[in-house]
User: Fold this.
Amino acid sequence: MIRPENVADAIVLTSDGCSLGHYKNFELKPAYQPIFGVDDNDCWKLTGFEGLVRPYIGKEAIEVSSFFKDVDDDDRLFVQCMCMALHIRSYKTALPEEKILFVNVDVSSFPSVDVLETEVFYMFSQLPKHGLNRDRVVFEILETEVLEKEVMLRICEMFRNNGFRFALDDFGTKHSNIERFLMVKPDIVKLDRTIFNNFCKIRETEKLLRALIGAFQNNGSQVLMEGLETSEELAMATDMNIDMMQGFALGRPALLPHVFDEEISIPKVAHKPDIHLVAETEPRRTQAL
Assistant:
């Protein structure tokens, strides 16, 4: 199946006011996962959504990873731009006003920074038509390949110069690390759930995580904890003064139309007991003693 030249020609408007994309024999539907933040009264309230894509063949849902494996190399840029367009076009008709939209950007899909900038300029021109402005859009940088320092800096500078905020995704995995944070100084750091789980197993390492979160915030970045799945994790993230939270415990990605909860309550969970290795508390005794 030959795809159209322009992304707009591959998108149709559905009867419920949402957009639907077409690629090969797939239908691409926009889904949104809620993100909660703290309001002026220190209460957790809905603050935004991450835009995600859900591929279908007919009525059958397809694994996202399987879909992207089926995307031809020459079409990666086309599909990336379609996904961004789907989230922006559907946002105004189905979601509350004044909420932030996180848009994933796989920078490796763009052949150059100039091409990426051209697409960002175009998206900027389309935002008012879809009820959005630059203050309500956060570009979430997905990095599937190691980028040269100069290229990464140009990308981040391009977002800032156009008035957009950007987030460093999956901190603690692959190339998203302290060095990358210090280099790009993102507006938001998204902590991967693995770093949260690993650091919270022992009280001493938990203190390191608290210090890391404080360091991010002192350097002007908000911290978003993603992948929270249990009430205990919610309570611990709240205790660590996380700025924003996201995960199945708060809400799964949902196709529109859908009504999302506006507020959440955090259960009080007793702190987990310290976990110490024997070697940390007692010297090993020999049989001779």
Q: What stands out?
A: The mean pLDDT is 84. The chain has nine helices and twelve strands. Residues 156 and 184 are 7 Å apart (CA to CA).
